[in-house]
Automatic annotation (TrEMBL), chain A:
Belongs to the peptidase U62 family. GO terms for molecular function: metallopeptidase activity. Residues 328-350 are annotated as: Disordered. It comes from Paractinoplanes tereljensis. Residues 238-479 form the Metalloprotease TldD/E C-terminal domain. This is Peptidase U62. InterPro entries: Metalloprtase-TldD/E_C, Metalloprtase-TldD/E_N, TldD/PmbA_N, TldD/PmbA_sf. The lineage of its organism: Bacteria, Bacillati, Actinomycetota, Actinomycetes, Micromonosporales. SUPFAM superfamilies: Putative modulator of DNA gyrase, PmbA/TldD. Pfam families: PmbA_TldD_1st, PmbA_TldD_3rd.
TrEMBL record, chain B:
Keywords: Hydrolase, Metalloprotease, Protease. It comes from Paractinoplanes tereljensis. Residues 116-222 form the Metalloprotease TldD/E central domain. This is Peptidase C69. The keyword Hydrolase applies. One of its GO terms (molecular function) is metallopeptidase activity. InterPro entries: Metalloprtase-TldD/E_C, Metalloprtase-TldD/E_cen_dom, Metalloprtase-TldD/E_N, Peptidase_U62_metallo, TldD/PmbA_N, TldD/PmbA_sf. The lineage of its organism: Bacteria, Bacillati, Actinomycetota, Actinomycetes, Micromonosporales. GO terms for cellular component: cytosol.
Length: 486, 475
């Protein structure tokens, strides 16, 4: 049993039908944009080393935004029958007629070509890849996901395990009354699991454009190695520590920079740290949003946003200088910029955000390759950085990070899934989880970055459709403000 | 109009495909939300969603499938798929699963609603938000935002145990927030942020326009207020902040699925050990927490949970002793308990799971005025700004929007960036004064599960005092 793949063009036909219904009901002056999205998400979840939740859904949603007589309203439905679409149009027209004036309406996206390779929806022209949408992943069965879970559980060697294996297929189309239309498909897979031993948790997670690129056994063994190395932790006093963050923790840094910093709405409201053209980060830091994939990675996102703006790579920080923030049409208009293709169903509320963030890896290391240590606690990508740390902490993952001050982006949160003390380049002791309170931009500031790993790994978010590409990161200081005792 | 027949078809198809138990929920939901900023409406959405989710138990393995199609044929296909998914689960099997009884039968429930929020003219609702944000701007806010949200949900539930239940739940709420830019930081004050299973009368009672100027003035004043000092002191929390404290350090901790390890990889586990249920001291004797989905108008109220268990009140903490959990039919059976009743899904496309309902404090013997008057030295904090807690629900740190010094029984200077941190049971055991002024604060954004679900909960809370709490943790 596999996910049904809708025939090509089905979503675009629905979108065009809605545009026609709007024209018939509201006349040619109505400005309408329609996004039709078919999502098939399946997730096989395990805990206590058994599959305990196994779910799948297939949903088509239609979102209409309408601007008429200076007023704007939006609506959506999952009812795609003729009656359902008609009801959506009638409801939205009724809403727009009684809405207050929208003086800041930014207009519709003009017709523009997408930045993707012909014949490979969702693949970036910049990538040069001959793949993009992977149909085998889209059609993955519960049995295939269960097999990966089984591999993870067995590879953990008897340790208690928990996590998930997820496959997602998305087929979408956009049309507006200004003549822009676009369609695309994506598929993604992710696996995320922990192994547990005597209160010590170890994690392994990966995202991929193809389910076939995930190896449950490799991930299960990695999580188990970390759990075993985390037994009998010591408690360290709070204070400022030099740290090496493994890619999982770096993904959290990227996530918060995106949500609060490189966000066109917070930027327009002067509530973001971002200052375009300013040297705000260490010169070694370059951050890019890569929805179309690059450098051997399959495309992760659709090649257009919900306003029909074509997406492409967006350099947010280059060599430490803040270059851009993510915009939808409304936030862009507010600051006199162009949309960067980051409109979403929630961008008017939460602001447009980059969802495929990449911290550029350092060039391949020139020092001697360290001998493999698959049973140790340190991720391969982090080992050269750890080897150069005199005294500090190796941190696997962050948890429950929340912003204390949005402008300076002071975040509090906890470490999770493994912390170790490093002395003279060697891991010397497992450490119990600690709380931190730290400004993220300050931690990445000029002179604060001691090294960036040379290997980038793809990491999933807990929400599908969001992905990070992160290397390990060596920072001069991280403010640990509490330990297990309080 | 009823959708029992389609739900029944899905259940029957799952049974025919080998399930030993199955249930199905059909949900029709209309939502409406509007936001305004600085005197202009910024966004208006009116959404409609309809679909069916069916859950099948094959052997001891679950499968779930959901479709946005209410036809009989789609329902039957969904039932078969759920059973097939459950069969795949059996390749990595767990221990045997049973289900505790859920009071099978027919039932119907409708939430209280005096003014249908979807029937209030959009122009009136827009005018309210525009006036609230304009009032905040006029009072000095750099940014003023307001919004409301409405959910109107009808659901039909059928199970192979004989359930046949329909419910109609209407929920709404609103808020206004004023922001002021300080020296390299943003100060914010929000009013409202209250949600319930009620009609538009709830929004009218919030008086967003009347309270917006005070929010702007306080946000502006915070930009020059002294920083919350660091150290240990008596902490007095307003009811709205204590509600979130309950949510994070009690509500999630007593979720049975977490205690059993079912959420270990994501949401986390719990510091609670079932062997200590009935004997573990959670807090001081002032601490009495109930699980009560029957509170009229509270956001976590319902007639039946999403497994068909009728709503009922239960103790979670009595006189400071931990005595109850939030449970589902399967988790209760695994734990050897005889009650369920706290399972919900956030829509037809999501698997029902253990969720908070209304988890809150029973009233105490004091008032806020009495608490302040009895405090020689301390800090009062109000309205949550940030929240963070570890994966066992022990080590927390909260930030609030505004604080005040308490000196010699009186409220003193305003303090900016107030934060406090602690360890759950140690904190609750330090609660030495509790007000009787309880309010069921609604929280409409409780995240849990994979795929993610957003739950609606409420927490009755009142001002309370805690001793020797570490405050003023700054970056």
């Amino acid at each position: 049993m596999s996910i049904d793949i809708a025939r090509t063009g089905a979503e675009l036909e629905l979108a065009a039908r809605v545009i026609e219904l709007v024209r018939a009901a509201a006349g040619p002056a109505a400005q309408a944009e329609v996004m039709v999205q078919h999502n098939a998400e399946a997730l096989t979840r395990f805990a206590n080393s058994a599959i305990h939740q196994n779910v799948a859904e297939a949903t088509t949603s239609v979102r209409l935004r309408l601007h008429l007589d200076g007023r704007t309203a939006g609506g959506s439905t999952t009812l795609t029958s003729a009656d359902g679409l008609r009801a959506l149009v009638e409801r939205t027209i009724a809403a727009v007629r009684v809405s207050p004036a929208d003086a800041a309406w930014p207009g519709l996206t003009a017709p523009a070509p997408l930045h993707h390779s012909a014949g490979y929806h969702g693949s970036g022209a910049h990538s040069g890849l001959d793949f993009g949408f992977d149909e085998a992943t889209a059609r993955a069965t519960p049995a295939e996901r269960a097999a990966l879970v089984g591999d993870f559980v067995r590879a953990a060697g008897g340790l208690e395990t928990a996590g998930f294996c997820r496959t997602v297929y998305c087929s979408a189309a956009f049309a507006n009354s200004a003549g822009q239309s676009a369609e695309g498909r994506t598929a993604e897979a992710a696996m995320d699991g922990i192994a547990r031993l005597s209160g010590s948790d170890g994690v392994a997670r990966r995202a991929a454009g193809r389910l076939g690129d995930l190896d449950g056994a490799v991930l299960g063994a990695r999580a188990a190695a970390k759990a075993r190395a985390g037994e009998r932790p010591v408690e360290l006093p709070p204070g400022r520590y030099e740290v090496v963050l493994e890619p999982e923790a770096v993904a959290d840094v990227l996530s918060n920079l995106s949500f609060f910093g490189f966000n066109g709405k917070t930027f327009a409201q002067r509530q973001s740290f971002a200052e375009l053209g300013a040297e705000q980060f260490d010169p070694s830091v370059t951050i890019v949003d890569d929805p179309l994939g690059s450098r051997g990675e399959p495309a992760a996102g659709l090649p257009f946003d919900v306003e029909g703006t074509p997406r492409e790579s967006l350099v947010l920080v280059r060599d430490g200088v803040t270059k851009a923030v993510a915009h939808d049409r409304r936030s862009a208009a507010e600051v006199g910029a162009e949309s960067t293709g980051h409109a979403s169903g929630s961008s008017r509320t939460w602001g447009p955000m980059a969802t495929h963030m990449r911290l550029e890896a350092a060039p391949a290391a020139t020092e001697p390759v360290l001998p493999a240590d698959p049973g140790g606690p340190t991720a391969e990508s982090a080992r050269p950085l750890v080897a150069r740390m005199e005294r500090g902490l190796l941190i696997t993952d962050f948890w429950y990070t929340r912003v204390l001050d949005q402008k300076s982006l002071v975040i509090t949160g906890l470490t999770r899934n493994g912390v170790w003390l490093v002395e003279d380049g060697e891991v010397t002791a497992a450490v119990s989880n600690m709380r931190f309170t730290q400004s993220y931009p300050q931690a990445l500031g000029i002179g604060a970055v001691r090294g960036i790993g040379s290997e980038t790994v793809l990491l999933p978010d807990s929400w599908s459709g969001v992905r990070y590409a992160a290397p390990a990161l060596h920072l001069a200081s991280w403010n640990l403000t509490g330990n297990a005792s309080g | 109009m009823s959708h029992f027949d389609e739900a029944y078809s899905a259940v029957q198809a799952a049974l025919d495909a080998g399930a030993r138990y199955a249930d199905a929920r059909i949900m029709l939901r209309r939502t409406e939300s509007m936001s305004a900023r600085n005197g202009d409406v910024e966004d208006l959405n009116s959404d409609e969603s309809a679909g069916l989710g069916v859950r099948a138990l094959v052997g001891s393995s679950w499968g779930f499938y959901a479709v946005p199609d209410l036809s009989d044929s789609a329902a039957r296909a969904a039932g078969r798929r759920a059973a097939q998914i459950a069969a795949a689960s059996a390749t990595v099997p767990g221990p045997p699963i049973d289900l505790v009884p859920a009071g099978a039968g027919a039932g119907s429930w409708t939430s209280e609603c005096r003014i249908d929020p979807l029937a209030v003219p959009l122009a009136d609702k827009g005018d309210l938000l525009v006036r609230a944000t304009q009032a905040a701007k006029d009072a000095g806010a750099d940014q003023a935002e307001a919004g409301y949200a409405i959910w109107d949900t009808r659901k039909w539930f059928v199970s192979s145990d004989g359930h046949r239940i329909d419910q109609h739940v209407r929920e709404c709420g609103a808020s206004v927030t004023a922001s002021a830019l300080g020296d390299g930081e943003v100060q914010r004050r929000g009013w409202g942020h209250q949600y319930g299973t009620r009609g538009w009368e709830l929004v009218e009672e919030l008086d967003l326009v009347g309270n917006a100027p005070r929010m702007a003035e306080e946000a502006r004043a915070l930009t020059t207020a002294p920083l919350c000092p660091s150290g240990e002191t008596n902490l007095i929390l307003a009811g709205d902040q204590l509600a979130l404290q309950i949510h994070e350090s009690v509500g999630h901790a007593i979720e049975l699925d977490r205690i059993l390890g079912w959420e270990a990889a994501f949401a986390g586990t719990s510091w609670l050990d079932l062997e200590k249920l009935g004997s573990l001291r959670y807090g001081s004797e002032l601490m009495n927490i109930t699980i009560d989905p029957t509170i009229p108008g509270a956001l976590g109220s319902f007639g039946y949970d999403d497994e068909g268990t009728p709503a009922g009140k239960r103790d979670a903490v009595r006189d400071g002793i931990w005595v109850g959990v939030l449970a589902g039919r399967d988790s209760a059976a695994v734990a050897g308990l005889d009650y369920a009743g706290s399972v919900r899904s956030d829509g037809w496309a999501r698997l029902p799971m253990v969720r908070m309902t209304n988890v809150g404090l029973e009233p105490g013997p004091h008032s806020l005025d009495e608490i302040i008057a009895a405090t020689d030295d301390g800090i009062y904090m109000e309205t949550n700004r940030s929240w963070s807690i570890d994966d066992r629900r022990l080590n927390f740190q909260f930030g609030c929007e505004i604080g005040y010094e308490i000196k010699n029984g009186k409220r003193g200077r305003m303090l900016r960036n107030p934060t406090y941190t602690g360890i759950g049971p140690r904190f609750w055991q330090s609660m030495d004064m509790l007000s009787a002024e309880t309010v069921p604060y609604g929280i409409p954004n409780c995240g849990k599960g994979q795929p993610g679900q957003v739950g609606h909960t409420a927490h009755s809370a009142a001002p309370a005092r805690f001793s020797n709490v570490r405050v003023g943790v700054h970056g």
